[in-house]
Write a structure and sequence with these properties.
This protein has 673 residues and is an alpha/beta fold. It has an eight-stranded mixed sheet, sandwiched between helices. Strands 2, 4, 5, 6, 15 and 16 form a six-stranded mixed sheet that branches. A hairpin with a 3-residue loop joins strand 21 (441-447) and strand 22.
């Protein structure tokens, strides 16, 4: 609930922090507790961060992730650091009886000491402190915690002289562009997370807080800028409280009215914007003569809105028994038993693995059983009919093709995950269509000479299910506040952020040419997959990791795929974000996360055009016996090509008309089109 900004005497109100403790943090705490802390309950230094670019509607978050214990490490790009103290108790009773007021008073006095000594002027980030009191039940993987962000209070609050307005309303277009250019050139981030601002119609300047007297000689108009993680249009965030106390202690007797700019930097559909930043004026009390630490507040309320701790149950993603059960019970079908298929099989090592394609599958099964005698593996010597590879030579070849299709359908229906690990593009088409029609998860891996791509295929949404785009993406009902992210595209986020699993494309969704015979008129080295040594093992391991992340996700194959480079907008998951596809270039050591959306007019999505049980093998025989044009006719690609060519002709004619309509003078040479 959001309270009104103004009461009777126009006091400024602040949006408190909402703790966002990611699953990675609890994983790290578990390891630290078992291996390092053990029974040691002494306070430990940790770190968190907050971000001033969240989308509208999100709470003011302070995030702790797997890197929280690396206190000397860098914070994520465009994020503000916060130093914290962890108090991890050995028992639940100790957690309940810990003196919370004493912990808060201790942290508040430390903040007040940095203000009195002037250390906060040199590095104002030390004003951003937090406390985390925890108890970890490592038998049940239940974690109890209470978060506190200490804030020093003014006895009678802060009087508001001018209500907050957006930067767009306050600054002229010229001033806004000056300020925006400073942000684009990283001048602001190089200064501090709290800094002084001086602006005129012609220029905008910034300076450190410690230079206030020299930067503002007359002290009549002083503007302080703070990185603000709040998304509310009329409220500053919690960190501003300690900054105002710092200014009131150092210069309270000299300052009349203070202007505050809460700087917010959001990226929307690839474009950065700061116009939603807010600016207002306050009258500061005088604390220059005060020697006693002010009263402090900061303990977070629980989800019910009362003062109390929170809890999170991570047994689903941390209990080894549950994790192993999910992996062990997964039935995997590996299509392809070459270098890539063997790499996947050796890394996978689940209980049930079926390998298909050629006699190599039988040899691979024998080797698997020697490596892991407990594996339930079976090999199948079969061929996969492919587009552009005719099967109509005789009744015998037609019967064999029919048998291969039926066997492939049966194998796919009996397994949970299908790995596509073949050499050619066209050999992946039929398994893609069959698995998609049966809503089976496909993990696809393909090698080049010095590149590879690993991806999952999108799953068709069940008819009787509600839209996945509106289902909350939380790991459990009582998880931390970070589980408030949803599968919908968050307002203010990138257009292609957090794409639901049923909207993801397949291996063929980026192609406008149907698969055909790719081995015709090619030499032996061109027909075989020749790649750098080790590339198959990297791609195979990544394919297995992708599968494990998907089956551990609460949404399974419908898991949201995030393509945003803004890690704060990624949905929370037990093993981190689940990408759609990952490509790698060896020569440049470049790992790139990509995505592509489902498109019904492409050849891999024929399950939306026909059903195999209705059209049967006769339809597939036309696909196998015809060139790629047959598939293109069926999916609408032929029409797309014709429309594209017509558009190019219209564009050419338009350019010609424009050139002859606006003809230059006769003595001017016109370059050829």
């Amino acid at each position: 609930r959001t309270r009104n900004l103004f009461d009777g005497d126009l006091k400024l109100q602040f949006a408190p922090f909402c703790s966002a403790l990611e699953a990675g943090f609890w994983h790290q705490l578990t390891q630290k507790k078992l291996n390092d802390f053990r029974l040691d309950e002494s306070p430990k230094n940790i770190k968190g961060y907050y971000y001033n670019g969240d989308a509208a509607g999100l709470p003011t978050r302070l995030t702790l992730e797997f890197s929280a214990f690396d206190v000397d490490g860098a914070s994520p790009a465009r994020c503000c650091p916060a130093s914290g103290t962890l108090y991890n108790t050995n028992t639940l009773e100790a957690f309940k009886t810990t003196d919370k007021k004493a912990l808060l008073d201790k942290a508040a006095n430390e903040i007040w000491s940095t203000i009195q000594s002037g250390a906060a002027l040199e590095d104002s980030s030390i004003l951003n402190k937090f406390i985390l009191l925890t108890f970890a039940d490592l038998k049940k993987y239940h974690f109890y915690y209470w978060f506190c962000s200490p804030a020093l209070c003014f006895l009678e609050g802060v009087q508001l002289e001018q209500e907050p307005v957006s930067l767009e309303q306050s600054f002229s277009a010229k001033q806004y562009m000056h300020f925006y250019s400073l942000n684009s050139n990283h001048v602001l981030s190089a200064t501090s997370i709290h800094f002084l601002l001086k602006y005129t119609e012609e220029s905008v300047e910034v300076a450190h807080l410690k230079d206030l007297i020299s930067f503002f000689p007359d002290l009549k108009k002083i503007t302080v800028c703070v990185y603000d993680p709040c998304t509310l249009p009329q409220h500053p965030a919690w960190p501003l409280r300690n900054v105002l106390v710092l200014l009131a202690k150092q210069w309270g007797s000299q300052l009349d009215v203070l202007e505050v700019l809460c700087f917010r930097d959001r990226t929307l559909q690839g474009s950065r914007s700061i116009q939603h930043s807010i600016i207002f004026r306050v009258k500061l009390p005088d604390l220059t003569a005060s020697a006693v630490c002010p009263k402090s507040v900061g303990w977070e309320k629980n989800p019910k809105g009362a003062m109390g701790p929170r809890s999170v149950n991570l047994s689903e993603c941390m209990d080894p028994k549950r994790l192993v059960d999910k992996v062990v019970s997964t039935r995997c079908l590996l299509l392809g038993a070459g270098t890539l298929g063997c790499s996947v099989a050796r890394t996978l090592m689940v209980r049930t693995i079926w390998l298909a394609c050629e006699t190599k599958a039988l040899a691979a099964v024998d080797r698997l059983k020697k490596i892991f005698p407990g594996v339930l593996a079976e090999g199948h010597n079969m061929s996969i009919p492919m587009p552009g590879h005719p099967v109509n030579f005789s009744e015998l070849t037609m019967a064999q093709a029919r048998q291969d299709v039926e066997q492939l359908e049966k194998l796919i229906s009996e397994h949970d995950v299908v790995f596509l690990l073949m050499d050619t593009r066209e050999s992946r088409w039929l398994p893609t269509v069959i698995a998609a029609s049966q809503r089976k998860l496909i993990v696809n891996a393909a090698l080049g000479f010095d590149t590879f791509v690993v991806m999952r295929h999108g799953l068709k949404k069940p008819k009787d299910s509600q839209s996945k785009e509106t289902r909350p993406m939380s790991a459990s009902s009582n998880s931390s506040s970070s589980s408030t992210a949803a599968a919908t595209i968050t307002p203010g986020a990138s257009l292609f952020s957090n794409i639901p699993g049923h909207r993801l494309g397949c291996y063929f969704c980026n192609n406008v040419v149907a698969p055909g015979d790719s081995t015709r008129d090619r030499t032996l080295d061109q027909q075989c997959t020749v790649s750098h040594p080790g590339l198959a093992m990297i791609a195979g391991a990544l394919a297995v990791e992708l599968m494990v992340s998907i089956i551990q996700h609460p949404e399974g194959g419908y898991a949201v795929a995030s393509s945003s480079d803004d890690r704060m907008n990624e949905p929370p998951t037990s093993l981190g974000p689940v990408p759609h596809q990952v490509s790698y270039e060896l020569l440049r050591s470049w790992l790139n996360i990509k995505y592509n959306l489902f498109w019904v007019n492409l050849t891999g999505n024929l399950w939306s055009v026909f059903n195999l049980s209705i059209y049967g093998v006769q339809f597939l025989a036309k696909v196998f016996n015809s060139s790629h044009s047959f598939l293109e006719d069926q999916t609408g690609l032929t029409l797309l090509h014709q429309e594209t060519q017509a558009a190019e002709v219209r564009l050419f004619i338009t350019l010609c008309v424009l050139m002859f309509t606006f003809r230059p003078e006769p003595d001017v040479t016109v370059p050829s089109l």
